[in-house]
Amino acid sequence: MKLHAMRGNGSGGYTTFGSMWKRGEVPADAAANNHFTLSNDRGETIPVQSRITAYWPDGSVKWAAHTADAGLMGASAELIYDADGTTAVPAYAERIQDDGDVITIDAGRATVTIRRSAKRLFESFVVDGRVVASDAVPVLELEDPNAGEHEGELVRRTAFTGRVDDITLEASGPLVTVVRYTGTHVSDDGTERLPFIIRMTVGYDAERLDFQHTFIYDGDENHDFLKGLGVRFESPMAGKPYNRHVRFEGDHGTIHECLAQLLTWKPVIPSHLYEDQQAGKLIHPSDEAGETIDASGVLNQTANSDSDNEKVETVLKDMPWWDEYHVVQDSPSHFVISKKTADEQVCRITTLHGRRTRGGASFGSEAGSVMVAVKDFWQKYPTGYTFSGLTTDTATATVWLWSPDAQSMDFRHYAQDGYQWAYYEGYDYKGADPDGIACTNEFSIAAGPTPIPDDKTLLDFSLAVDKPEQYLASPEFYHELGAFGRWSLPVRDTEMENWLEDQLDKAVAFYRKEIDLRNWYGMFDYGDIMHSYDSARHQWRYDMGGFAWDNAELVPTYWLWYAFLRSGREDIFDIASKLCRHVSEVDVYHLGKYKGLGSRHNVRHWGCPCKEARISMAGHHRVYYYLTGDRRFEDLFDELGDVEKTFLEKDPLGDWYDKESMVYLAHARSGPDWSSLCSDWMTQLERTNSPEFLNKIQTGIDDIKAMDLQLNSGVDMEFDPNTCHLRFINNESTGGVHLAICQGAPEVWIEMKDLVDDPDWPKMVADFGRFYFLPHEEVVKESNGALADRAYPFPFFASAIGAYAAEYYGDKTIARKVWKYLIHALMDGRHTGFDTVTLHNVGNQAELEEIPWENPWVKTNFVAQWCLNAIVTLDFIRGDAPRTLAEADELTEGLGPDTQRKS
Questions:
Q1: Whole-prediction pTM value?
Q2: What tens digit of pLDDT does each residue of 145-172 get?
Q3: Which CATH class is domain 98-259+323-411+434-468?
Q4: If you ran DSSP here, which 8-state letter would residue 671 be given?
């Protein structure tokens, strides 16, 4: 498998990437026996640590995850399976000692000590014999704005300290050790809030620790507002205050300050001392011979005199020492740095206002320095740092994932009612419950030089944290192996293909711009996109119920991941991965009665009363997980292994059917409910190779197979969450048949056939696609009148499954109809597609690009479904597409402007 660096930005450190293998090519024990070999383009063998992430049904390896040093891999590398060889890694082997209480990770230059009884993340992090950080602990602040006057306070703020309850060595290989912590935050009175899952990665000979921090909201939305969240640690400080420094990344370059700056009025300090100090050198004016020592420890003979020393010592007694620095990115377009002295009753003063910082920061002294960085620092505002005690022997640093300097997070809904008919909120009752939502953030701490890193060192570090290198195979490789089902590679051999590819590119470009233009940022928003646009306001309908945040409605995840797979583009990877992270955490419940379900689109991400499996389904995230090996998604997939049990609590059709007349305990539409469960079970089947999940899938297939019209039966069915059996009840489809195929079902079902050994399944899928494009009289005839009242709306939604049917049956008539409706849905005889127009002085923009969406139903739902179906359809029936735009006009002639329903 040939690999290339996606970013090519030179960011170093350990990186994890995925590999895919043909069925039967690699045995299950390949990772355990070190049979994967990695080499760079110079032919050098590179140490690699591997694990299996997915299996084929025969037990052979489908996907594996590999960790290696990006600096050694370089621009390109090659990974092979060598049945006879083993990867040479003994020289890199980490050593772990665990006596039941103390865990010691000996990682070459670095040593990490963890004491279970301390209930903290670690006791010490030592690099080259120097203590870099110690006593790391999660911290939390909650604010209650409704404490009540009778309690003597209107607003109460409560501090919590993280208590680690369980520590697991999730990986202990030769290159990296991954420590998984679970616990919760506890206040002084014993109140527990916001459980957490934190992963810490220790790399061999690495100077840094990487953290993945997940918290779950379990508070009272009326009283538990999030005011501060982060991790706090201590670091030794030593030497004179003028040898103590801070450095922060700004909009451009860095901001460097000393805690006691040698620029004075009386007595005047020689300028060369101040210049050396500002250059980050150690200053030793007290040396009797007049020598200074630079950062590398070399004596500098440009002598400082004893009088210089006297001046410095004199002035130190008569100048402020800056003991505390604060950084907060409080919006997507503003950060501020402030500082204060150690006195309690004094103010902070402002150091700098800026727009966007990537977030690298450091502090140091004669004892050495510490660097910190948060991934997506400004995008996931309000982030920040507090460095305090800088003039003492022990500094305290807090990495704020939610800075207490910012406004607290209010989890309440925006209204006391639901607005189903006016604003499409699902139901008329309010269903906004934040209890169980989660959020994951990443940050790193690292050892720096004495006394402070220079610009390049800090900027390189923050880049490596924010934009780690990602290694990939070519789109052609993934396409050949059928990774994640069927999708097409870009081809521009005809005028029509050129037009189609242009539209796909324009759609991505539009949303890429909108994310930044509309500031879709913030801890709980970043990654998501909006649902519907309001051209009259030149604004997305952010305040209109079910038209606001998209929450993976009509699977933009699949669109973007397929767009990435076929192109390998970094910008699409970033958009898709951020959407993936958001949907999997904020839009989904991770504890409580809705655990494993997600919330449909709304003004608040958790605001809709519809809690459904389609939002949480594993299919949204499979590409990201298998390409990156991100362990957080293993937690999420495990949560979904038995998500069907939540249907007992939240029946997807519970408001539509009389409970008393039911035979089974709940309902499931073939799509998106059962198809989403199939996505979850399929993912767990791959990961575990357990027959439990295969049996769940096969049970449903067998039940559908026994129905008169198979997948064309229903779509509504009764469902028993305890046995996973489905029961035919009628041929109705609550909400419309299109819901069975517009939320990922075709993509799930097409990929599922490679994991389920059922010869009837491909035909069942093909027949559903075929029926969608049959003339109505043929539908009535083939169903013996059972589907006489059925409509098949939004035929372009069914393009992918229709194209599958056309290929399966070799049916040119179906293929022609598929292209007819798909092309007409966007072209409408004018070839406008996703072209934009430029407006002036509207939407708070001097120039605003809008897509002139005249049809009110053209929104993110439309864009995601059109693009996804175009990408898939091209792979099945490219040869049946018109070759020119004139042929496309001829094909779609006679279709009116309303393409919502089949002609």
A1: 0.95
A2: 987 755 556 789 999 999 999 999 999 9
A3: mainly beta
A4: I
